[in-house]
User: What shape does this take?
Amino acid sequence: MHTAVLGIQWGDEGKGKIIDYLASSHDVIVRCQGGNNAGHTVVVNGERYPFHLLPSAILHKNKTCVLGNGMVIDPEVLLKELNNLKEKKIESANLFISNKAHIITQQHIEQDQANGKSIGTTGRGIGPAYASKITRTGLRFKEFIKQNPYHELNFIFNNVIDTSLLLQKNLDQDKKILFEGAQATMLDIDHGTYPFVTSSNCSIGGIFSGSGIFVNDINVIGVSKAYTTRVGSGPFPTELLDDMGEEIREKGHEFGTTTGRPRRCGWLDTVVLRYSKRINGLSALSIMKLDILSGLKEIKICDSYLNDTTLVTEFPPSIEELENLKANYITLPSWEEDITACKNFEELPKNAQDFITKIEYLVGIPVKYIGVGPDRTQLIVKP
Assistant: This one.
């Protein structure tokens, strides 16, 4: 069975770690949308590997990695990441790039930096590149090669191909595909907190349109932190603007992989998780950074919103409605124990187990993966 890994909050959930884990049981890993506004980090033996364009699974040998047609790619950033791999003696021979993927130009970057501040974009040219694509004035990778035959990237130009056809051939050979989502559902151009969203479909629909193939038998894993973070502007019902929010930020090292900006922090919002479950058809959850909640005085989970005295259990369709709502919380006891060495669910403190069980109840699907530390080995796989 194939697998899609999607963020189900506002990004930065820890998708890279889950993708890194699942890559060993899949043959092909494909990124389908976004650009270097995304940032996935994998920690191996204490060494951090941040990726902005390349699939996180590039660290695995003998895996086919694909940058799909739904992406927008900055050639200079791609060159830098590939050169970084060379310096670390990591092979990238099995990387293939869609000839339909669009190019981010310097003009796009300048336009984004001039106009994107009100939304809180990364300034990497993503939105303007997608705008050029929609207005049919964009530059695709195959045209970029024709215009720049002697670019420093030319060592990989032979791997710029019709990746839809490549993926189909792998399907015909019964190879297993892992779809690597970037950003998250609440940043989706259609389903997120518009207009404070990214410029692509980072929910399940973007997986298929951005790869050029469709599969029926697929597990959709939704990745969430044990709390919530957001970078940039936009509504955030459970945001903590007090010492607790600062404590979570410091303990969780909540600063953007791509921008370095401090992330806004708040309690877990299961209204958001249920909404993402509906949009994406989630099969299971992955709850990351559970260890960050160790030692807090108490833990809260938002299970609904309040409009004056009216209970709201569904995520509203507009930010105007959302701004009039307040988070309604369930309070749970925390735990003092260090859980970073826990290898299975039964080793977790009872209060940590109860926290996970409560999430499963409120969202209505099982938690399959639990992150208890930054390293790739600090992952509990629940049966």
